[in-house]
Amino acid sequence: MHRRQFIKACAGAAATASIAGSMPAVASNGYFSRPGLQLFTVMTQLDKDFDGTLKTVSDIGYRQVETMGSFNMSAKELQTKLLENNLVTLSQHLMPGDLYQSFSRYYRGELTWDEIIKIFIHAFDFSKVETFIEEAINRAIPLGQKYIVWQVNWQKEYGMKEVKQHLKAFRTAGKMCKEAGLTFAFHNHDHEFQPLKGTTAYDILVQETDPDEVKMEMDFMWASYAGVDPAAYLRKYPGRYKLAHLKDHDKSGKIVLPGQGVEDFTELLKAAEEAGIEQSYFEFDQPVNPIEEITAAYKYLSAIPRK
Known about the structure:
Largest sheet: 8 strands, parallel, barrel
Oligomer: single chain
Order of helices and strands: HEHHEHEHHHEHEEEHEHHEEEHEH
Strand content: 15-25%
């Protein structure tokens, strides 16, 4: 038996069993009806009071959360904290090495934007893909997660060279995750949709990766901000989308809470469900009053009719 298969066999069954009693309601097509939360939105609160913040998130009504690695703790410890608060996690955003600590320092004002960007680029060094995907797999299995998400590509330029680098990395990550019984996914921002040689970087990344090994987490707001119709992409590439991020922006491009901007969330959530997306998460890139913001978002998104 391959080493990763052995890890999966030993840890995967235990993790699945431990979360079975806490899973939120799920439709027959696999779609979680409640909005989830990308925990980045409350990162500053987590750093101050991790357990108390998880309790607040749960008390608001969230059940599914997306993690940032395992928040500088062991996956087993994080799983315990989540389950104690009736929370489960389907997916994680990559946090290679000690990146989470650096990210926390940035939000405490100890690092500049330019400094954290350099740290991110170094952490996602293309020559170390196997190392940090293996690290993510070893976190995901005891957490009972299904998806590992590559969420960043902040290179100063994003041309064919960068696209080819990402293609190679995504193919490697996809094969590794599949071998471990997991699924790799890519989260977009806006710059992937800029014109590139008659198409876009995003389209190349979707078209030139294996549909069985590389899925997508659609950030509706960033796609809309880039001037494309995110729902049209869900229809364009059926079967490729498994996760989604929900946030809004106004006509000036400022990120705002769902319902305060231009996005039609009734149509987006309908399109997400029809496309086979399993979980949609609220995320707020620029939180000011995070608890108030996640409360308002939950109330708004929960009130939108589902099938």
